[in-house]
Amino acid sequence: MQVALVTAGATVLVALLGIAAEFLRRQSHALTEVAAHAQEARDQVSNTHSTNLRDDLDSVMHRIDRVLDGQERHGDVIAALREDIAHERRERLAVSERLDDHLAALTS
């Protein structure tokens, strides 16, 4: 009877050890996969040059702001030129009309 109990206990112990070993193997595989994903993420976000990414972005934003300011100023200059051209056209048409009236008065 004692032999049967020892045999049964050993069988249960071996089964528990097998379950524990399988659990540890699965956990090891999951940890290896997480480590691989973490390394992949680290490779994607690591800074491999001498400047800070935030400083680089700030510099780019400053340059974009300068370009936008320049476009706004040029837009104002273009609007002023259009206004000047429209004024010149109105004056030219008025002179042309006066000249036509004057020529018509001379010929009649």
Largest sheet: none
Strand coverage percent: under 5%
Number of helical stretches of at least 4 residues? 2
Structural class: mainly alpha
Q: What would your notes on this structure say?
A:
With 108 residues, this protein is mainly α. The chain is 92% helix and 0% strand. It is built from two helices and no strands. The chain is rod-shaped and about 145 Å long.
Features:
single chain; 108 residues; mainly alpha; 2 helices; rod-shaped
Summarize the structure.
By secondary structure, the chain is mainly alpha-helical.
Task: Compile the SSE list and pairings.
Elements: H1 2-45, H2 53-107
